[in-house]
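TL;DR need structure tokens for one chain.
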Amino acid sequence: MSTTPKSGPAQGKTDHRKLGGALYGAKAVPHTLDVPEFAFLAVDGSGDPGQSPEFGSAIAALYAASYALKFAVRADTGLDYAVMPLEGLWHSTDPDFDAAALDTYGPGDRAGWEWTLLIRQPVPYTDAQLAAALAKAAAKAGAEEAGRIRREVFTEGPCVQVLHKGPYETEPRSVKLLHDYLEAEGLKEAGRHHEIYLSDPTRTAPERRRTILRQPVS
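>> reply
TL;DR here they are.
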């Protein structure tokens, strides 16, 4: 990874989400955008997110590592930034699964899902800073959970996205909007279904949650 200069003057906190424009400002109707290369910390897993303890432990480990890395970068450089929101890449192992054909996710609908949880790291960091952050995450969230964290860098390129408002269980309604838009525009899926969680589910009522649904296309 890129190195960062040692010690620097204290600076104001930068919120890269607010600087991201359409990347974190989806609309209630599908629209296209181009997503550049981003770096993340990531954890892979499988199963229904509402039923899997592994899902919750992965979130806890990612946040513990991301905050520890932020503090390490700030201590070394004076650069401060807001930790980015949780994101997820999703894929069903069931070849017949079609989210757009559902109205809501019912019991068992998500049992065959594979997922990658992500938190974007918006500034450069050193290997030493990451190692220190993972050690702190292990102490806070557990060594096994922190040991599953890996670095991930990818470019999604052309995408279509829409803002889903409401419970996660009703996302198929917004997925259908995406699929209808792709069909109307002659576009094809070209990557995993991507979600960005703009609302903290521990503090936001289900009906008020805001989630970006994004689909890479060709």
